[in-house]
Specification:
The structure holds three protein chains of three kinds.
Chain A: H1 2-13, E1 22-31, E2 34-44, E3 49-53, H2 60-67, E4 77-84, E5 87-88, H3 94-100, E6 105-108, H4 112-115, H5 122-134, H6 138-151, H7 157-160, H8 170-182, E7 188-192, H9 200-217, E8 220-225, H10 228-234, E9 237-242, E10 245-251, H11 252-257, H12 262-270, H13 307-311, E11 317-319, E12 322-324
Parallel strand pairs in A: 3-8, 3-9, 6-7, 7-8
Antiparallel strand pairs in A: 1-2, 1-4, 4-5, 9-10, 10-12, 11-12
Helix pairs in contact in A: 5-6, 5-8, 6-8, 8-9
Chain B: H1 2-5, H2 11-24, H3 27-44, H4 46-49, H5 81-117, H6 119-133, H7 137-148, H8 152-179, H9 182-189, H10 194-230, H11 242-249, H12 258-285
Chain C: E1 6-17, E2 28-40, E3 45-49, H1 56-63, E4 71-76, E5 79-80, H2 86-95, E6 96-99, H3 113-123, H4 132-142, H5 159-172, E7 177-181, H6 189-206, E8 209-214, H7 217-223, E9 226-231, E10 234-240, H8 241-246, H9 251-259, E11 306-307, E12 313-314
The chains are: A alpha/beta, B mainly alpha, C alpha/beta.
Chain lengths: ~325, ~290, ~325
């Protein structure tokens, strides 16, 4: 509960007129004929944490990759706008993107073992962005790397500077990734399933660590998650994605406590909680990209679908402090 | 329900989908296959297609160029080159396939035994295989021909022996990989007898790269066979053999180039065709080059 | 009380690790399991819960007879698994089915689903050859898959479908016990819910004994009536699911519950540090190093799993008191 209290105070402190840190407007991404992301809109204020939630194939990771410029033309076609601190990202040159990535935008991947280079020591890998973006001297880099390792809770950081990734446990590797991501004090942190390979007790440690560091730096963060309950615990806002669209987006305590969109409701009734008695699966499957329904993409699986749902795509409406894309919001 | 009742329904179309279609997509492989089919037809129907007895000597008609009587000319003994060419194809294909088949059976058996039993058995078997692999195929086959003596049958044994090593090594490698797959353990847990595990679960999963390899080895076998005969330690003259024919023609290369040229060109075309087919087979079925199963 | 279908008597499993180098080659011992005691009654549904490295997978391999116990005994009915004769082994293979975590990997990629499912049926001659087709259709129907899948290969099925096929294969031999290793991990929530419901219905309808390995306490509580929590190769707490959820008695169980993500509670990192290496275990309680309530005595003596009340056993010198 104190989580929610912290949120409201934070929201109250925020100047409303300020331009959002990240502003996604009607953003679409096509791969050939397939529309992978369809009209995604969301805004992230400085200091906010946002959770992208949905099943595999919902387009959460695609959106994250597009944000950091790892999915670009000609591989895919982008439409709409992605603005980060007022800069239009869709038209950014690769060289400028490189100045952003690892500097103003930090990245944490799901599989730390795969993301860390096995040939370099963790000290070298943490120092890399310090050299590239901040131009620190060798001695300063080492000092700062040790500081960063200490700040992410790695015991005896000076000894571990010269360790290779495989010499560390999965949890420790994830901490190293966080240290790299936070090395240049990013304004936005992007974390793609940062803890899904870890045990729950370690997951809690890592999530707490990320949140603490993000708050300390007054950065924003976007988490790609599949665990709704975890989303409720760590995110200020939640965007529920289905088949490349955002179906519901708003403050996490509202979206998850009293979901309005039938898909969010369905998702929540599938979540296994401690002592769950019944789980109600959503019938059917996510439609393949080349056979998306014309109207609402969730209509074929929706218990409330009527004729109009199959014909016309619902516009996102603001209701109860959140945007919901459904014809029949009650 | 009706679907379920036909468990073995349309094996034919399935076979097409899984084996024929991927192969037919490889254009060069189809070309190779067509050439090989022509050779096989020539070899099978040699008795009917030949115009002369391949070993009938006619010294009066020696060293003749192509003519109506001798389509591709004659050699120094007056033997008809066209007929010898046809029977030579027969011999080359028989030796090629027989030696590879024999080498494959023995090699796969050794590889399976080594891979599955492990321990001391594996160590002993693989050291023997290492011994075989230490020599180039040609040297090994030569040594065995020297021990066994000349002759078609001995040539097959000698070539087969030189192929045992590669097949054994490859099979063992694949078996070691497959052996640790969960489905092998799952079968063991269900109580599937060992023989059935090997036959049903191990072999089908190692067999396709081995068959691809076998296809490529046939061309090596034919080349080696011709080489050995050329060197005079293969089949015995006057058997119609391409290697022998090339060797015979060597002395007359300036006067009657067709004696060496005809079998030489025939050999080259067959080898290219076999290699095209072999590459096609590999691209179609080898899991490492396959895009999606 | 009827006799247990499985009983583990102080089971231990150690692996010897050779040190690299020529000098000092005295092997070190990795204790994957240490003094595990467990009784499984017919019809029980038991979840083995623990983090990676807790020994839960080793435990199930021992119970399946895939690995021998280094010490102690694993009994199936009255018989020691290590001493089964050929006939008993065959019966064991039929009566105890295992569902792999890697469902796709546990199926021969070159066999069709029909042949995969028919294999145990043919093997144990459960029905005439002519009746197999009908039987396969019934099996698929039971796990909620269309019969059209019979002609497919494992690689052509989705993650949810392949797990259902794995369940169908486990059911094919009409087993008495099903053991399953993380059978819903890595699935999307809606598919996970479907598979969980399927497993739960199967156990309820047919009275199959289920042993389910999971790291997810929520899944454990949904599927199973009993839970055994493992930590570093030992069961630290076991008892009925509701009791364990409501009043955990071992600090580790409590920490696991607190770390579990919930809608109604803030995030809480309940434990510091990581699970230590099972090589060279410290003296005393193995959880003492991370336990928030460790006392001097905890570092001296190693608590055994003892009865806490009628249903619950806890391995802790100072069990957590009162309601959570």
């Amino acid at each position: 509960m104190d989580c929610a209290v912290a949120l409201t105070t934070q929201a109250a402190n925020m100047p409303v007129s300020e331009e959002p840190l990240l502003d996604v407007r009607d953003f679409s991404l096509r791969r050939g004929q397939a529309v992978v992301l369809d009209g995604v809109s969301l805004a992230l204020q400085p200091g906010e944490t946002l959770g992208l939630i949905g099943e595999s194939g919902a387009g959460k990771s695609t959106l994250a990759l597009a944000l950091i410029g790892l999915l670009r033309a000609p591989e895919v076609q982008l439409e709409g706008s992605l603005r980060f601190r007022g800069t239009e990202l869709t038209r950014l040159k690769e060289a400028d993107y490189r100045r952003l990535r690892g500097n103003k935008i930090g990245l944490i991947f799901q599989d730390a073992t795969a993301a860390l280079n096995p040939c370099f020591t963790v000290g070298q890998q943490i120092a890399e962005p310090l050299k590239r973006h901040l131009g620190l001297s060798k001695w300063d880099r080492r000092e700062r790397a040790a500081e960063l390792m200490h700040s992410v809770g790695i015991p005896e950081p000076r000894l571990r500077l010269d360790a290779y990734p495989h010499e560390l446990s999965g949890g420790m590797q994830q901490r190293v990734m966080i240290a790299i991501a936070l090395a240049c004090n990013p304004e936005l942190l992007l974390a793609d399933e940062p803890t899904s390979a870890l045990d729950v007790t370690i997951q809690a440690q890592i999530m707490e660590l990320i949140l603490d560091r993000v708050r300390e730096l007054n950065s924003s963060a976007i988490f790609v998650l599949h665990d709704l309950a975890l989303g409720a615990q760590v995110c200020d806002r939640i965007a529920v994605m289905y088949a490349g669209q955002i179906v519901e987006e708003g403050p996490s305590e509202r979206v998850l406590a009293a979901p309005l969109h039938p898909y969010t409701r369905g998702l929540k009734s599938c979540v296994v909680e401690l002592g769950s008695r019944t789980l109600v699966p959503i019938p059917g499957q996510v439609p393949p990209l080349d056979a998306m329904p014309a109207g609402c993409r969730f209509a074929p699986r929706c218990p409330k679908a009527k004729a109009i749902c199959g014909e016309q795509r619902p516009r996102a409406e603001i209701r109860d402090g959140r945007q919901v894309a459904c014809w029949f919001i009650d | 329900m009706s679907d379920a009742l036909n468990i073995t329904a349309t094996p034919d179309s399935q076979w097409k989908r899984r084996f024929l279609q991927p192969l037919l997509r490889q254009r060069s492989a189809v070309a190779g296959l067509a050439i090989i089919v022509i050779y096989v037809v020539a070899a099978v129907f040699a008795p009917w297609l030949a115009t002369h007895d391949p070993t009938a000597q006619d010294l009066m008609a020696s060293l003749q160029g192509p003519s109506a009587a001798h389509w591709l000319g004659t050699d120094s003994y007056g033997q008809d080159l066209y007929s010898r060419l046809l029977y030579g194809a027969q011999l080359a294909l028989i030796i090629g396939f027989a030696s590879v088949a024999l080498g494959l059976v023995v090699g796969v058996a050794i590889g399976l035994a080594a891979g599955l039993m492990g321990g001391r058995t594996e160590w002993v078997l693989m050291r023997i295989v290492d011994g075989l692999l230490a020599f180039p195929e040609l040297i090994l086959a030569m040594a065995f021909m020297a021990v066994l003596g000349l002759g078609t049958e001995n040539l097959v044994y000698a070539l087969a022996l030189s192929f045992v090593g590669p097949f054994a090594r490859m099979t063992r490698g694949d078996v070691l990989q497959v052996k640790n797959q969960p489905y092998i353990e799952a079968a063991r847990l269900m109580g599937v007898p060992t023989a059935a595990i090997i036959w049903r679960h191990v072999l089908p999963n190692v067999v396709s790269p081995i068959l691809v390899q076998a296809g490529m080895r046939v061309s090596i076998a034919i080349l080696l066979e011709s080489g050995l005969s050329f060197l005079g330690i293969g089949v015995v003259p006057p058997t119609p053999d391409w290697g022998l024919m090339i060797a015979e023609g060597r002395a007359f290369i300036t006067m009657a180039p067709w004696i060496s040229g005809v079998p030489g060109v025939a050999l080259a075309i067959l080898l290219v065709a076999l290699n095209l087919l072999g590459d096609g087979l590999r691209d179609a079925f080898d899991p490492t080059t396959q895009k999606d199963a | 009380m009827q006799e247990p279908i499985f009983s583990l008597l102080d089971v231990e499993r150690t692996y010897e690790l050779r040190r690299p180098g020529w000098l000092n080659r005295a092997p070190r011992q990795l204790k994957a399991l240490d003094g595990v005691r467990l009784d499984l009654q017919r019809g029980d549904t038991l979840a083995l819960v623990g983090e990676s490295g807790s020994g839960k997978s080793t435990l199930i391999r021992l119970m399946l007879g895939l690995e021998p116990a280094s010490d102690g005994r694993v009994l199936y009915g009255q018989r020691d698994l290590a001493q089964l004769d050929a006939e008993e082994k065959k019966r064991f293979a039929r009566e105890v089915a295992f569902i792999y975590q890697n469902a796709r990997g546990s199926m021969n990629p070159r066999m069709r689903i029909a042949d995969i499912l028919a294999e145990p049926i043919r093997l144990h001659r459960l029905c005439a050859e002519s009746a197999i087709a009908e039987r396969l259709a019934a099996l698929l129907d039971r796990v909620g898959l269309p019969a059209g899948l019979l002609q497919r290969f494992p690689s052509e099925l989705s993650g949810g479908q392949i797990r259902r096929v794995a369940i169908a294969r486990a059911l094919a031999a009409e087993p008495q016990v099903i053991m399953a290793d993380e059978s819903v991990a890595g699935l999307d929530v809606s598919v996970q819910a479907q598979v969980l419901n399927l497993l739960r219905d199967l156990c309820r309808e047919s009275g199959i004994t289920l042993v389910f390995i999971t790291h997810d306490l929520g899944v454990a509580s949904y599927l199973c009536e009993k839970i055994a929590v493992l930590y570093l190769g030992r069961i630290v707490e076991q008892g009925p699911t509701d009791a364990i959820l409501n009043t955990p008695r071992h600090p580790y169980t409590r920490a696991l519950l607190q770390a579990f993500p919930r809608f109604d509670m803030p995030l809480k990192a309940s434990l510091s540090g990581e699970i230590p290496s099972p090589v060279d275990l410290p003296k005393g309680c193995r959880f003492a190093g991370r336990c928030p309530e460790a006392q001097a005595a905890c570092r001296e003596s190693d608590p055994a799993l003892t009865a806490f009340d009628a249903e619950r056993q806890v391995a802790c010198l100072f069990p957590v008191a009162g309601a959570q």
